[in-house]
Amino acid sequence: MEQQSRLETSGPGTVRPGGRTAKVRAAVLEATRDALAEEGFHALNLDRTAARAGVGKTTVYRRWGSATGLVADLLADMAEQSLPATDEGTLEADLRANAALVLAALTDPRMGPVFRAVIAAAACSEDCAAALRRFYATRLAEWAPVVERAVARGEAPAGTDATEVVRAVSAPLYYRFAVSREELDATAAARAVDVVLAGVAAGAFTRR
Amino acid sequence: MEQQSRLETSGPGTVRPGGRTAKVRAAVLEATRDALAEEGFHALNLDRTAARAGVGKTTVYRRWGSATGLVADLLADMAEQSLPATDEGTLEADLRANAALVLAALTDPRMGPVFRAVIAAAACSEDCAAALRRFYATRLAEWAPVVERAVARGEAPAGTDATEVVRAVSAPLYYRFAVSREELDATAAARAVDVVLAGVAAGAFTRR
Hints:
Two copies of one chain form a homodimer. Chain A is mostly helical. Chain A has helices at about 20-40, 45-55, 55-65, 65-80, 90-105, 110-125, 125-150, 160-180, 185-200.
């Protein structure tokens, strides 16, 4: 018997044929995100996630199997849901938009702790590590065209490694966030972009 | 009754007055490092660490209190033991030496998993996060003089933020290691330094 929940309370008539599976997944992933934000990966638990989502335990065990299964599916969903890259017309504007999005995600009161938790989960589980790798590969591939367009416009040297440029914008922000555990602010984001633009102009990102 | 161990087998006559506390700490931290390298933070356990170190459980509970206490003290010890910065005569040579050390630490079969585990521990515990912050603050302060000397030699613009330059060398390596979970190699280390040198030359690291 399923508990009263965000799934069950979505109201009559909202479960269309074929929509139930997607609704169960959405409820379970939302419960997973909430649990990670509030308590971190080490406290993630299938029974409590099922209760929180208002989904039967059997369903959750059968479809996700373990806490790492929940995290891996959450990361797959985050990759699917992520916003497309900007196309502002200049490399600088696009990279500033990218840095602003990374900064906003990491400093968001709900998503910041989720990112911290999935990074921790990846340190504890190879399945989570693979899911995290796929998430960032998707994000990097999404943003690489901003650099490719800059090369086509002559704003960046031919042979510039687009993915490496996008990585380099994120890296100083994630380093402070997850490694050195320092303050993260607009100054850090602005400097990350300035340094990358100098590197692009100097040809430091050409493929080798 | 303490078990036969690396502490007890160090031989008669090696425990000098005043040396016992330091030996107990060394044995416990070595056992902590081994446990983190082999199983990660989520499996770190005081009882098994005490047994592994050959130190009484009561001592370990009294002095370290919890798994996070062990990690925090290990990080304090790693900061104390860390190698001093180089002084090669040029900013480029010093930053390449720094990048090589970071790369060697993160790809070391024993220390790599330890770094991954302490980063995960910091995501689960504020005490570990504070200890990790202190560890990197120590490392950054140790290496900042290589940039200050470069400014004094006229190799870098006046007002260059020395700590920020050192952070920027590490960041892309840690990003691959702990966040995007990608391969880490000499090419990534070389590019990190090239990009930072371009940023220094362009004034992107001057204080703001």
